[in-house]
Structure formats: structure tokens, C-alpha cells
């Protein structure tokens, strides 16, 4: 089965695409998109990879599920399309950036500009049925995205992983801590942020500090 994903990732993940679980996942996703409204659009499912070639990956941010409202999801975790109101977690991300790196709150919630600089915005599950959060969980996506994290960990060096909230923190077991950097905090969702677990984590300035130490270009958040 041919997967429409950026070439450098295709080379890294080729064996994964041949596995039985992935072939079954592909059949499930095709049927879901045929029978229901699903997000993101088919062409955007692997958008996080298309904007961030494998060797250029400097930062990995892990989300859980795509947004399930109309026109929100664009294939990058926490990101929405241009012109779409910012969901609460994204609002809190931008608020933290404003205080942390003194960057004005942006008009667009489209994070493709981060991905184009080497930030892999990876949801654990890459598709969802409209208005049904978690509807495509436990169908194989998590196995695939865990393989992505393991591949980044084993084949690259000096990547900064940002793990926000309990779900993302569990992924730290897949990462080689001797060659990568892991920053953890509460999730940017209002539930967590309002309990003091998000604001002030300074992950954006800390990430740029780590990248600078390694002689890598900082991210323009």
C-alpha cells in the first residue's frame, strides 16, 4: 500500500507501513472517510510530516487527538487552519509564548510556520470522526505514532521533546534520554492551566536555549 507522506519519512517508516496492523488501520480509515465526516481532510492526515522532513526535526510536540469540529484540524497537533477561532489549549499556548518570549499574540492559529522550522507537531491519533472525540483511538494509530517517536529517538540526536500533560509524559519511555532533551509540564488545556500546571513553564525559551547550546537555529515561535 502506498502512503502519501513526505519522502524522508517514507524511507524511515517504510517497514511500518508494511505491517499488518497498519494495513488494517488504512482499511478502517478509508471506510470511515467514505461513510462519515472525518477530520482532518484526507490530504492533511500526514501534514505534520510533510512540513517537517525527518532530518530537519529539532523539536517534537505530542498531542492526543485531532480537533473534531468543522474546519479546525489541519494535521498538526494544537494547530487550526487560518481564520478559525483558536481552541482553548491553543489560546493558552500563545499566552505562554507571549510572556515567555515576548512575542505578540498571533492572529492565525495555524502552526505550519513552526513545522516548517523543524517542529514535529505529532498527534498520537491522526484522524477522528466529526464531533466524536477519540473515535479513532485504539485502531492502530497509537502504534504507528509510537514507532515515529522511537524512530526519531534512535536515528536522530539532540531533539527537544515537549511532553504536556499525563498522556504525553507517558511517551518519555520511548525516548533515549542520553541523546535527547525532554521538557515536561501540565497540559495547556484550561483544566490544567487554571490549576497552575501550565503557565510559567517557559518551554519555548528553554527549547531555544537548548537548541542554541547544540548550535542549532532557534525556533521563531
From TrEMBL:
Q: Is Hydrolase among the key words of this record?
A: yes
**Which Gene Ontology molecular function entries are recorded, alphabetically?**
uracil DNA N-glycosylase activity
Q: Which InterPro entries did the record assign?
A: UDG_fam1, Ura-DNA_Glyclase_AS, Uracil-DNA_glycosylase-like, Uracil-DNA_glycosylase-like_sf
The family database entries (SUPFAM superfamilies) matched by this protein are listed as: Uracil-DNA glycosylase-like
Keywords of the record, alphabetical order, are: Cytoplasm, DNA damage, DNA repair, Hydrolase
Uracil-DNA glycosylase-like domain sequence ranges: 50-211
Give the EC number(s) listed in the UniProt record: 3.2.2.27
Which biological process, per GO, is one annotated for this protein?
base-excision repair, AP site formation via deaminated base removal
Catalysed reaction(s)?
Hydrolyzes single-stranded DNA or mismatched double-stranded DNA and polynucleotides, releasing free uracil
Q: Name one Pfam family in it.
A: UDG
Entries under SMART domains matching the protein: UDG, UreE_C
User: What's one GO-annotated cellular component?
Assistant: cytoplasm
Keyword DNA repair (UniProt): yes
CDD domains with a match to the protein in the record: UDG-F1-like (cd10027)
Q: Where in the cell is it found?
A: Cytoplasm
What HAMAP family does its record include? Answer: UDG (MF_00148)
What does this protein do, in the record's words? Answer: Excises uracil residues from the DNA which can arise as a result of misincorporation of dUMP residues by DNA polymerase or due to deamination of cytosine.
Q: Which family does it belong to?
A: Belongs to the uracil-DNA glycosylase (UDG) superfamily. UNG family.
Q: Which PANTHER family match?
A: URACIL-DNA GLYCOSYLASE
Question: What protein name applies here?
Answer: Uracil-DNA glycosylase
Report which gene this protein is encoded by. Answer: ung
Amino acid at each position: 500500500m502506498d502512503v502519501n507522506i513526505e519522502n524522508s519519512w517514507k524511507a524511515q517508516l517504510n517497514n511500518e507501513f508494511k505491517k499488518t496492523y497498519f494495513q488494517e488501520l488504512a482499511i478502517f480509515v478509508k471506510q470511515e472517510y467514505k461513510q462519515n465526516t472525518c477530520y482532518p481532510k484526507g490530504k492533511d492526515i500526514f501534514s505534520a510530516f510533510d512540513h517537517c522532513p525527518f532530518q530537519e526535526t529539532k523539536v517534537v510536540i505530542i498531542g492526543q487527538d485531532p480537533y473534531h469540529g468543522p474546519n479546525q484540524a489541519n494535521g498538526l497537533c494544537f494547530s487550526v487552519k487560518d481564520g478559525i477561532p483558536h481552541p482553548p489549549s491553543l489560546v493558552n499556548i500563545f499566552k505562554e509564548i507571549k510572556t515567555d518570549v515576548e512575542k505578540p499574540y498571533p492572529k492565525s492559529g495555524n502552526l505550519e510556520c513552526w513545522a516548517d522550522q523543524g517542529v514535529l507537531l505529532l498527534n498520537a491519533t491522526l484522524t477522528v470522526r466529526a464531533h466524536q472525540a477519540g473515535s479513532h483511538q485504539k485502531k492502530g494509530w497509537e502504534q504507528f505514532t509510537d514507532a515515529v517517536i522511537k524512530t526519531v529517538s534512535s536515528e536522530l540526536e539532540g531533539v527537544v521533546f515537549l511532553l504536556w500533560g499525563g498522556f504525553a509524559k507517558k511517551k518519555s519511555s520511548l525516548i533515549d534520554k542520553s541523546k535527547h532533551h525532554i521538557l515536561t509540564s501540565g497540559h495547556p488545556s484550561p483544566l490544567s492551566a487554571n490549576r497552575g500546571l501550565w503557565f510559567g513553564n517557559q518551554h519555548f525559551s528553554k527549547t531555544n536555549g537548548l537548541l542554541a547550546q547544540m548550535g542549532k537555529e532557534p525556533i521563531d515561535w
